[in-house]
Amino acid sequence: MGQKINPIAxxxxxxxxxxxxxxxxxxxxxxLLEDSKIRxxxxxxxxxxxxxxxxxxxxxxxxxxxxxxxxxGFIIGKGGEEVDKLKKELQKITHQDVQxxxxxxxxxxxxxxxxxxxxxxxxxxKIAYRRAVKMAIQSTMRMGAEGIKIQVSGRLNxxxxxxxxxxxxxxxxxxxxRADIDYCHVGAIxxxxxxxxxxxxxxxxxYGKKDLAPNFSQKQEGGRPGMDRREGGRGERKGNxxxxxxx
Length: 247
Prior knowledge:
Elements: H1 7-10, E1 20-21, H2 28-45, E2 51-58, E3 62-69, H3 72-76, H4 81-94, E4 97-104, H5 112-124, H6 129-142, E5 147-154, E6 163-170, E7 179-190, E8 193-206, E9 229-230, E10 242-245
Helix pairs in contact: 5-6
């Protein structure tokens, strides 16, 4: 089952908390759609800000949006002008008071969303996919990840026949629920079509019962709430990866 289901959804309530925290009641569907519009708008508006995740919390009259990003200065702007603009734009979507919090991701190399988007942008910039993937694997393992797996699929290098290629290093135990595995799937729009990029990153194993409520003041590595982890003890690696073609 771990090979088929989304690794984040598979670990909700175990080592991973929810990105939307509120009680919907009778308006659950409308509120869920509103959350989706907020995330879609922010990801389009702040496409160059290296956004990792967007956490939305709601009370009766206030919507709190926490943006986890590797480039907080890009969102805040000079003297906080950009945040004020963003707040007014989100108020038009929610028709409620909006509070925006910016949280900096200290190690973007350990975040699957940031890594996948970086590879996708490189593919769109006509960089060879093997070079982009190797650089991502080396930088992630250098930052202390236990393992990383990257799959690219589509018309690679403009080939007439689409194919899939997978590169991996270290361990990514998808069946182990206590393993903190981050996952992302994005598409790179190129001249020859869309190339899909999937990234799995294992950042260690989590032991004991954890508080899954969003608490960004106690975050540790990888931009997740404070967790007791077992480090893999892996040092710096250079080019020690292997490639598996999809059967």
